[in-house]
Amino acid sequence: MDSNLAFLREALSNHLENHKVCQEIYRKLEANEYKNEEEFARDLEVNENRILNLILQYELDYAKQEKDDVRLQQLNGVYEQLF
Fold first, then answer.
1. Cα(55)–Cα(52) distance, rounded to whole angstroms?
2. N or C: which end of the chain has fewer CB within 10 A?
3. What are the residue boundaries of the structural domains of the chain, listed by start?
4. What is the C-alpha to C-alpha distance for residues 11 and 36, in angstroms, rounded to an integer?
5. pLDDT, tens digit (0-9, with 9 covering 90-100), for 27-58
């Protein structure tokens, strides 16, 4: 699995209890072997894309606040492919 997507999967795990759509996205990451973020982004439904946008914004802000540059860079790679 692409390292950016691995970081995304880990970030999504923080939101599985609260969001059914996050569970669906997480299952996609588990079930498919995406080569890169672009391939993953093409496989998302519109509602999944919207929720993932919100989750990524939250996670990116958190990474900035914690000064976690590695996490920030990895998640930003996914975010850029979505938009």
1. 5
2. C
3. 3-82
4. 17
5. 999 999 999 889 999 999 999 999 999 999 99
